[in-house]
Amino acid sequence: MFDKVLIANRGEIAVRIIRACREFGIKTVAVHSTADAEAMHARLADESVCIGPPAPRESYLNIPAIIAAGEITNANAIHPGYGFLSESADFATIVEEHGFIFIGPSPSHITLMGDKVRAKQTAAALGLPVVPGSAGALEDAGSFAEAADEIGYPVLIKAVAGGGGRGMQRVDRPDELAGAVAMARAEAEAAFASDALYLEKLVAAPRHIEVQVLADQHGNAVHLGERDCSLQRRHQKVLEEAPSPALDAHMREEIGSRVGAAMRELCYRGVGTLEFLYEDGAFYFMEMNTRIQVEHPVTEMVTGIDLVQEQLRVAAGQPLGFGQEDVRFTGHAIECRITAEDPETFRPSPGTVSGYHTPGGLGVRVDSALYDGYRIPPYYDSLISKVVAQAASREACVMRLRRALEEYVIQGVSTTIPLHLRLLASPAFAASDYDIHWFERFVAETGAEPGG
Asked: What are the sequence ranges of the domains in the chain?
């Protein structure tokens, strides 16, 4: 196992990794921007190194500064967390070239799955179901029109290097196609420095189901069940739960087994998440995330498996200590992503936390880097906390989560806790009667302004 791990991230995920390392007796190094000098991760780690000013490109995306921090602190390995450089094959390669262990997949797998077209082609070759679409990136208007006519409208134009809904446009009629392609190219170029686009059939009202996988460097791979991430705003997840209320035991075993077999054939290593659209009993592969997910706690709560510690074990070359037959699922878990935003307009609400109290009790977990007096900076993602509840049934889990959110105190800034309480009280949510488009309609109907 490692002596010292540098964490190339911030916020709650950096704190989460520090805790996992500490339980293994591993020393930790936090990197931070000048804006995060008093952040929780910088205070909890054994050592901390300032790597630049507040702007992410000058700090958390500054690869030379991160490598230098690892060298001066004699770290053995680097954990990227999620976001920032976590799915950068260049970063993973540079980490390994400088003699560190990258706590994540191989650079080649990051590259493969980071290209949405190649990822889809690979998934199909591995026997996974995929959404009908173009065989690769499309260049001219004629190619888009021909592919759309063949697949049938409505279609989705998507960025090859895309994510988070950027570079994505829905097209319902042929006369909308040219304008949508131009808009998607501009968005993709601005977000990913690549304007490459491809086209897929639009699955009209699906659920968003993702399957958690874990694989070692010795050919072993297991799936850890699925998560339902259908509640989204602007393609960003709001609430996640495991298991999915939309699947029965047969469906769960079928898709899990296929994913596990695919990862063994791919010789994947580390944690990963394969994301699917699910509609009318059919799954359609969308993409694979080659990193730890924001919503990993719900899987941990129903399996009892510490995914970050498993990342550390796999990166250190150890084989998995269990097989698929050893994975047991217990009860139901739900995670609410709490952001520093106005719950009505969704405007960011940075500022100083003037009062802070976390909920507790059986089956309640809070992953956060907040503390009383902490100043939430305006430079980064607005996610400030994740509240997770686990109970024997979905109904009991919802009640426990509502109780926890009612106990949660975050003063001095606006948060989305009221929105989550409104969501949990919804009859449609209680009945699990929703798809990936439902939440935005719910927000509009209950008073918030989705364009705010």
From this structure: 4-103, 132-201, 207-445
